[in-house]
Amino acid sequence: MPKIRLLPGKVERDRWLNREEAERLIAVAPDQLAALIRFALATGSEHVR
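RESULT FIELD:
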């Protein structure tokens, strides 16, 4: 298995989409993927602001 080096420093990884970003993402996604995105957003809806 290849080794993967991490970049130095702290990386901020937690970020949630706001409502406008979510709507734009769904609008440009293919139908099957848009359905998956809607499901993912609905199950984590407390993070959508």
